[in-house]
Amino acid sequence: MQRMRVAVVGGGLGGLTAAALLARGGCEVTLYERSKHLGGRARTTEVEGFRFNLGPHALYRAGAALRVLARLGVKPTGGIPAQAGSHALLAGRLHTLPRGAVTLMTTDVLSLAGKLEVAKLLAGLARIDTRSLGALSLREWLETRLTRKDGRALLAALIRVSTYCADMDALSAGAALKQLQCATAASVLYVDGGWSTLVDAVERVGREAGARLELSARVAAVALQEGGKRVEGVRLAGGTVHRADAVVLAGSPADVAALLPGDAVLAREAREAVPIQAATLELGLSVLPRPEALFALGLDGPWYASVHSASAKLAPAGSAMVHVAKYLGGADTAASEAELEAVMDVLQPGWRAKVVARRFRPSLIVSAGLPCAANGGLLGRPAVEVPHVAGLYRVGDWVGAEGMLADASLASAEAVWQALMRRTRTSQRRAAGA
Ligand SMILES: Cc1cc2nc3c(=O)[nH]c(=O)nc-3n(C[C@H](O)[C@H](O)[C@H](O)COP(=O)(O)OP(=O)(O)OC[C@H]3O[C@@H](n4cnc5c(N)ncnc54)[C@H](O)[C@@H]3O)c2cc1C
């Protein structure tokens, strides 16, 4: 029987994972990536021996990404950030960050009433049924569950660091709490060598299984069969059409809509998608001025700073790699470098004299579509199968009902693989019966 031909458009971690799974499942896979490199937002750049991810990246240890990578035999190494050295940033000063029963009781960022309310909520967090909260905004949920402003500020900060999202009006409470449950269940992993080690490992698996990976290959359109209801293949920027039985689109909602011009459903999804954005500052320091200060989380502003090299191999011996970020959202769509530097002034005074390498980005797309309360949260995200075009699938951190960020991207890659394996088995049964 002829093998199923699959075209994957996009060589980020999601598209690559789909390509590797499908090639291992026996499909004839060709992946097209418009840039010169694989990896998309999961790329790592080496500057003066420091390994800079594109902003702070952490794998959720209880999330889908690790599960799907394990299917491919990819087992990332790295470290779990320690709780010691963690601070809350409030009114321009460092305070104890409540991360457990003891720090919750000793911190001065909460009143006694606030502490009791937060302690009760966190004790019951794992038992919250998040599915019923999909259509409620995070702000509405916080206001009904916590009467104290200080407690709400702490919960909002914990959810920001877990979801990357600062838009409490748009974000679904169900999705936010599911992500917080995932983060608190098993913490995160900072990956040795950066996320490009994941990209390289998945690329290796894909190539070994026979996937063809074409770089500098921009797909200009999805070619449809007559009638427009079934895929025929992909049309490259040069005009050549490559035939395929299934096409997997692994870019953003706007990328997907651009490949099927005139498709009103995909155009609406692209218009309605609300990206999660952040400003980031990467720093390579010859030495940490304050080795005991490893993490800061803003309570009165959307700030984050973390010494990733304290937990993973990302810097030359003795030196330090620090990620600083501002979570953007709503009208806040970019940040200045000075804002992020000010966070470092509090966490690591004297850092400026130790800079060996640095990189600033005023605004990056962290996730192509946040799970909006207005659409019902995770269950309201577009499905992996495009229902009105047979053979068309999508993968990304805005697709499917499972997870956020890279977890969603890899969970959707896994779901596409499962759908196509089902299709292959059905065709085989039909062929055997014929
Ligand atoms: C600052 C920052 C911090 C983050 N932190 C975390 C974190 O801590 N934890 C976490 O889980 N996730 C995090 N993420 C998110 C994570 O990086 C992404 O969810 C994941 O890498 C997305 O992978 P993807 O393959 O779905 O998309 P992308 O990486 O965006 O890949 C899409 C690819 O498709 C290609 N493409 C698009 N259209 C075409 C076309 N027409 N033809 C050919 N190629 C095309 C693009 O060039 C791109 O390479 C972070 C992201 C950022 C930016």
Could you name the key traits of this structure?
single chain, 434 residues, alpha/beta, FAD/NAD(P)-binding domain, Polyamine Oxidase, Chain A, domain 2, 7-stranded mixed β-sheet, 5-stranded parallel β-sheet, 33% helix, globular, binds flavin-adenine dinucleotide
Description:
With 434 residues, the chain is α/β, with parallel strands linked by helices. The protein folds into two domains: 5-42 and 195-272 and 372-433, 3-Layer(bba) Sandwich (FAD/NAD(P)-binding domain), CATH 3.50.50; 78-191 and 276-367, Alpha-Beta Complex (Polyamine Oxidase, Chain A, domain 2), CATH 3.90.660. It is 33% helix and 23% strand. It contains twelve helices and 20 strands. The strands form five sheets. Strands 8-7-16-17-18-15-19 form a seven-stranded mixed β-sheet, with helices on both faces. Strands 10-2-1-14-20 form a five-stranded parallel β-sheet, covered by helices on one side. Helix 1 (13-24) packs parallel to helix 12 and helix 9 packs antiparallel against helix 10. It binds flavin-adenine dinucleotide (FAD).
Strand and helix layout:
Elements: E1 5-9, H1 13-24, E2 28-32, E3 44-47, E4 50-53, E5 59-60, H2 64-71, E6 78-79, E7 86-90, E8 93-96, H3 101-106, H4 112-123, H5 138-145, H6 149-163, H7 173-186, E9 188-191, H8 196-208, E10 212-214, E11 219-224, E12 231-236, E13 241-243, E14 246-249, H9 253-259, H10 264-272, E15 276-285, E16 295-298, E17 303-307, E18 320-327, H11 337-347, E19 355-367, E20 392-394, H12 405-433
Parallel strand pairs: 1-2, 1-14, 2-10, 7-16, 14-20
Antiparallel strand pairs: 3-4, 5-9, 6-9, 7-8, 11-12, 12-13, 15-18, 15-19, 16-17, 17-18
Helix pairs in contact: 1-8, 1-12, 2-12, 4-6, 6-7, 9-10
The structure holds flavin-adenine dinucleotide.
